[in-house]
Amino acid sequence: MSDVKLAVIYYSSTGTNYQLSRWAAEGAEQAGAETKVLKVPELAPEAAINANPEWKAHAEATKDVPTVAPDDLEWADAYIFSVPTRFGNMASQMKQFFDTLGGLWFNGKLANKVVSAMSSASNAHGGQEATILSLYTSIYHWGGIVAAPGYTDPVIFSAGGNPYGTSVTVDQSGKMLEDVRAAAIHQGKRTATVAGWVKKGLHG
Ligand SMILES: Cc1cc2nc3c(=O)[nH]c(=O)nc-3n(C[C@H](O)[C@H](O)[C@H](O)COP(=O)(O)O)c2cc1C
Questions:
Q1: Pocket residue to mutate for ligand 1, from 19, 85, 93, most atoms within 8 A of Cβ
Q2: Which of 119, 138, 140 is nearest to 129 (CA)?
Q3: Which end of the chain, N or C, is more open, meaning fewer C-beta atoms within 10 Å of its C-beta?
Q4: If you measure from the C-alpha of residue 172 to the centroid of ligand 1, how many angstroms do you get, rounded to a whole number?
Q5: In this predicted complex, what is the ipTM?
Q6: How far apart are CA 37 and CA 175, in angstroms?
Q7: Is-above-0.90 flag for pTM?
Q8: Does pLDDT of 113 surpass 70?
Q9: Using one digit for the tens of pLDDT, what is the confidence trace for 35-63?
Q10: Angle at 64 between CA 59 and CA 68, to 5 degrees
Q11: Whose CA is nearest to atom 2 of ligand 1?
């Protein structure tokens, strides 16, 4: 095991981004990182969740996944964020979590973290890349080091990967229409590996 600690932080209504997060964590663990998969707090009213069977089932299935706290961002050397595309941008649950991090940011605790992001949307060109890129805007404010996948591995071509960060198209029930498992695993590995390089440079 390397001494890299990596937090995969996600929001998901119907399971896609939870699955992407688990694959990314698998990749980070293959690279030797200690990982945590953490969800951001839900903001939607219970009535809205209960009215959608897929959403309700996913909320129930993941009730034991720990909820992220600002301390987790201090703990981790690297973050991978996974979030559904909502009108071409990150789901508000993730943005609201970001907006709780002012204290950590102010104290320089978010600087030099190695970060990448993933997304899903229900249309093939429904804004996945816009979501990932707009999420990275916040990371630049933190002094984060974006370690996007680029084309650093053949799986980016063969597994429907995306150089900005793994993204996928889903149907109404949240079923993925492309097999991006290998791309998400690679992204996890790469984020953890780059974090190892940065950590070594910072702390020797
Ligand atoms: C309010 C709202 C806005 C959405 N906006 C978009 C969008 O801009 N483009 C798109 O293709 N899909 C859009 N979707 C579909 C979601 O991106 C899709 O349900 C999500 O990626 C599934 O991820 P999850 O299973 O992790 O919840 C939207 C869904 C909701 C509820």
A1: 85
A2: 119
A3: C
A4: 9
A5: 0.99
A6: 21
A7: yes
A8: yes
A9: 999 999 999 999 999 999 999 999 999 99
A10: 90
A11: 86
